């Protein structure tokens, strides 16, 4: 019953989405408020039905109802409850259902909190949202129905892929999708603006918070996924330039550019056409990512050709939306008036440079991902593009970008004084140079690039601090005045500083980890001692244990440094009986920002075990960086300016007034 | 991220064996040569894996390739000779860093071309604008918007 109800709810959601696709559009044409208001009710009802459908699938998984194919293929009655729930989106059908649920959530949010949007704009935005939703409901119902029954229900399920049985699955995909799908809002706003043929600074105000929300989730989602890969995969890698990763990086790069260009549009009414184009491109890249991931085209062009139904369907959606929106853009963009003159050296100019570098970086990733596919199909030339390629192309672009980052927020709008800003950044520059000199002297004979890159990271962080110090008059004015000014500073200024500093932090982490990572690979017997980066790790022994749906072999290591016992580390290997596969559970010991990392290999006939031990200096900074960036985003989101412009019920706004 | 997505996407049916990449018995006694082998391994693709280098992969084929690389190094090959040897055997698919040649021209030149093109477009636009000298006229606000703007402005003034 539950499966059928869930299925039916999804069909109803499709029906609602179809109504929402056309009725408000017609209403906007006829200037009929009643018809335009249909969008609001259908968007909320859609959320209700998709939510019901999603809850139905969760219930089926929790109840281990193996008469449903999706549950049978991805669950097991002995699986811990948390993985029964997260397993819902640990497979193709369920994750697509999560995708549309989040799409409906965003549509519902616009409907619920969009009361201060002009009626026709809201109608258009929600209609465009419904087009996207209809396409994906159809996709799920036709090619990926998660509610299909099995005629002769088996007693036991096939279990979830063991690598996915981790808390990471609970957090990473929902976050990522909140980011991916969140960009649909700026896309819908862009299309609505093109249809209406009008766009102004108020438009940018409405779009920016939504973009920011999506960006925050995408940032955290990518970082979370990277940390998950790091601790779970067992060789301590955290970024692989894998097409699937690139699929999430591209919308992030474009979204970051969008965030910055929307700023110019909001403040100075310039870069309108470009901002619209970026909104379209960002969501198009999200769709492309969905296509790359869902069609299996990455694994192999041939796998795609063998079972093309899903792939072709998403490809159609992709062509329809990207092609349609870009042609609309081509036809209507010239009608949008350009405004806001600025000199090349100005805040706007800096943001344009930011956009240029980010879009080129994004294009590099796009080409690196698709070029091998294109060559194979068009020229029958099989080639690979991997990390060494991106290190030579993407990394220099980002280095250039980071070098420019501290200048941006300190330049004035319209016409800036580059020399003056350089003088004010002198201290930050000197800090960077001093760090370069120290690191250089300390690691003589090592890589020459590493000290430079660390210096750049320090410069970016010091630049962010300088910006805040300048704005608050730190060291120039009495401390009380500074404090007062700091409190009065717009939250978005703090947000900028945190986000930019986060970039520097991540850079330092990346450089330290890749340059000074030490590694120890050997087979060890009990009581053997491994020495890594000044730590002594003694293998005490091996023991076996039975988990809920796996057996696990645990190795116990006593970690000491200079004779002082520090901790016990217990890496393990788990064998999952149902799928006949195993996972390594690495053991991590955090010391400041650095980590010791042990993962286990095979046991030899003599009872020795293969181990890999790493010392990863400053590795945690890689993820502290994105967390800082996301925190900056949250601060910026709480800025008054955005709250006022942001869709919010009028009541909340009144409560703000007597604040001071 | 890679793990989850890759697993969801493509490896739903293939369980990933969680064994180590470089095995202890593969390591060369000469540290300098081992370092070279590791460096080369990072540039070579495990051809049966999804975009993994042979340094990262635990597939049997990756192990064979790692041993092959070490064999060539032990035989006295230079780094580029080792790469040539592998390309001759397995084609350019094995290289994670594609060679700079006719087929990959666009790939390698994309970033400089786009930067130059984007820079040129910006320069031209700036020149055109500064020559025309005046701001493009902005369409006037509708009365509706005027009222909204006034409301927003007074709102700002009151609470700041």
Would you kindly provide a written description of the structure presented here, covering whatever features stand out?
The complex is a heterodimer of chains A (660) and B (160). By secondary structure, chain A is of the alpha+beta class. Chain A folds into four domains: 1-165, no CATH class; 199-308 and 327-404, no CATH class; 405-516 and 621-644, no CATH class; 518-616. Chain A has helices at 2-30, 33-62, 69-74, 81-86, 92-113, 119-143, 167-196, 201-233, 243-268, 272-295, 301-306, 308-332, 347-379, 387-404, 418-424, 426-442, 449-472, 479-488, 491-516, 621-637, 640-645, 650-656; strands at 518-524, 529-532, 535-546, 551-561, 564-569, 572-576, 581-585, 587-591, 594-603, 609-616. In chain A, strands 2, 3, 4, 5, 6 and 7 form a six-stranded antiparallel beta sheet that branches. Chain A has a four-stranded antiparallel beta sheet with strand order 1-10-9-8. In chain A, helix 5 (92-113) packs antiparallel against helix 6 (119-143). Chain A starts with a helix and ends with a helix. The relative contact order of chain A is 0.08. Chain B has 160 residues and is mainly alpha-helical. Chain B has helices at residues 2-9, 31-41, 60-74, 79-90, 105-132, 143-159. Chain B is elongated, with a radius of gyration of 29 Å. Chain B contains six helices and no strands. Chain B has a domain at 28-102: Cytochrome C biogenesis protein (Helicase, Ruva Protein, domain 3, Orthogonal Bundle), CATH 1.10.8.
Task: Itemize the secondary structure elements and their pairings.
The complex is a heterodimer of chains A (660) and B (160).
Chain A: H1 2-30, H2 33-62, H3 69-74, H4 81-86, H5 92-113, H6 119-143, H7 167-196, H8 201-233, H9 243-268, H10 272-295, H11 301-306, H12 308-332, H13 347-379, H14 387-404, H15 418-424, H16 426-442, H17 449-472, H18 479-488, H19 491-516, E1 518-524, E2 529-532, E3 535-546, E4 551-561, E5 564-569, E6 572-576, E7 581-585, E8 587-591, E9 594-603, E10 609-616, H20 621-637, H21 640-645, H22 650-656
Antiparallel strand pairs in A: 1-10, 2-3, 3-4, 4-5, 4-6, 6-7, 8-9, 9-10
Chain B: H1 2-9, H2 31-41, H3 60-74, H4 79-90, H5 105-132, H6 143-159
Helix pairs in contact in B: 2-3
């Amino acid at each position: 019953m539950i499966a059928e109800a869930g299925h039916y709810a999804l069909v109803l959601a499709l029906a609602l989405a179809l109504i929402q696709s056309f009725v408000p559009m017609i209403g906007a044409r006829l200037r009929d408020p009643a018809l335009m208001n249909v969008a609001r009710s259908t968007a909320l009802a859609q959320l209700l039905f998709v939510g019901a459908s999603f809850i139905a699938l969760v219930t089926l998984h929790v109840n281990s109802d193996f008469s449903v194919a999706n549950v049978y293929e991805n669950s097991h009655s002995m699986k811990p409850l948390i993985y029964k729930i997260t397993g819902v989106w640990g497979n193709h059908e369920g994750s697509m259902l999560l995708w549309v649920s989040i799409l409906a959530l965003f549509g519902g949010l616009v409907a619920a909190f969009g009361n201060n949007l002009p009626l026709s704009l809201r109608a258009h935005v929600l209609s465009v949202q419904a087009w996207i939703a209809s396409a994906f409901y159809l996709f799920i119902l036709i090619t990926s129905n998660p509610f299909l029954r099995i005629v002769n229900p088996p007693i036991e399920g096939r279990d979830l892929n063991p690598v996915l049985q981790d808390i990471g699955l609970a957090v990473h995909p929902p976050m990522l999708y909140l980011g991916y799908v969140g960009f649909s809002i700026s896309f819908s706003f862009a299309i609505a603006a093109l249809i209406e043929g009008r766009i102004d600074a108020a438009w940018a105000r409405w779009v920016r918070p939504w973009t920011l929300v999506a960006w925050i989730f995408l940032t955290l989602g990518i970082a979370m996924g990277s940390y998950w890969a790091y601790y779970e995969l067992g060789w301590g890698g955290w970024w692989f330039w894998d097409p699937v990763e690139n699929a999430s990086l591209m919308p992030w790069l474009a979204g970051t550019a969008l965030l910055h260009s929307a700023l110019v549009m909001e403040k100075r009414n310039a870069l309108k056409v470009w901002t619209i184009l970026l909104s379209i491109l960002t969501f198009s890249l999200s769709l492309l990512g969905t296509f790359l991931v869902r069609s299996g085209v990455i694994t192999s062009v041939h796998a795609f050709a063998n079972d093309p139904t899903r792939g072709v369907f998403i490809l159609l959606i992709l062509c329809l939306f990207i092609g349609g929106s870009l042609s609309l853009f081509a036809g209507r963009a010239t009608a949008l008036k350009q405004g806001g003159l600025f000199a090349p050296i100005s805040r706007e100019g800096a943001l344009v440079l930011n956009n240029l570098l980010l879009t080129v970086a994004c294009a590099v990733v796009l080409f690196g991902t698709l070029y091998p596919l294109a060559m194979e199909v068009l020229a029958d030339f099989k080639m690979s593009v991997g990390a060494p390629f991106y290190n030579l192309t993407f990394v220099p672009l980002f280095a250039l970008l980071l070098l420019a980052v501290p200048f941006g927020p300190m330049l004035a709008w319209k016409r800036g004084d580059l020399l003056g800003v350089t003088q004010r950044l002198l201290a930050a520059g000197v800090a960077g140079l001093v760090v370069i000199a120290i690191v250089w002297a300390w690691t003589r004979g090592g890589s020459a690039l590493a000290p430079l890159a660390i210096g750049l990271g320090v410069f970016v962080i010091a630049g962010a601090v300088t910006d805040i110090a300048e704005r608050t008059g730190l060291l120039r004015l009495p401390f009380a005045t500074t404090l007062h000014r700091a409190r009065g500073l717009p939250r978005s200024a703090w947000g900028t500083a945190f986000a930019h500093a986060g970039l520097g932090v991540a850079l330092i982490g990346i450089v330290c980890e890749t340059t000074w990572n030490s590694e120890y690979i050997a087979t060890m017997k009990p009581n053997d001692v491994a020495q890594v980066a000044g730590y002594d790790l003694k293998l005490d022994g091996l023991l076996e244990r039975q988990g809920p749906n796996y057996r696990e072999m645990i190795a116990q290591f006593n970690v000491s440094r200079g004779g002082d016992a520090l901790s016990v580390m217990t890496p393990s290997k788990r064998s999952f009986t149902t799928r006949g596969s195993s996972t390594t559970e690495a053991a991590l010991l955090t010391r400041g920002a650095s980590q010791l990392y042990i993962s286990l290999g095979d046991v030899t006939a003599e009872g020795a075990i293969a181990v890999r031990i790493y010392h990863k200096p400053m590795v945690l900074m890689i993820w502290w960086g994105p967390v800082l960036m996301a925190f900056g985003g949250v601060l910026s989101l709480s800025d008054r300016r955005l709250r006022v412009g942001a869709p919010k019920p009028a009541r909340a706004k009144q409560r703000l007034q007597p604040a001071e | 991220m890679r793990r989850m997505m890759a697993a969801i996407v493509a490896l739903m049916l293939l369980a990933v064996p969680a064994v180590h990449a470089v095995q202890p018995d593969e390591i060369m006694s000469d540290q300098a040569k081992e370092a070279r082998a590791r460096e080369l391994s990072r540039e070579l693709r495990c051809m049966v894996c999804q975009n993994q280098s042979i340094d990262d992969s635990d597939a049997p084929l990756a192990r064979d390739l790692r041993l092959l690389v070490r064999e060539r190094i032990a035989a006295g090959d230079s780094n580029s000779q080792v790469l040539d040897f592998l390309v001759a055997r397995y084609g350019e698919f094995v290289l994670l860093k594609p060679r700079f040649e006719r087929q990959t021209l666009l790939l390698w030149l994309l970033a400089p071309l786009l930067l130059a093109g984007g820079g040129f477009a910006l320069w031209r636009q700036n020149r055109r604008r500064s020559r025309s000298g005046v701001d493009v006229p902005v369409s006037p606000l509708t009365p509706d918007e005027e009222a909204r703007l006034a409301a927003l402005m007074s709102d700002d003034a009151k609470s700041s």
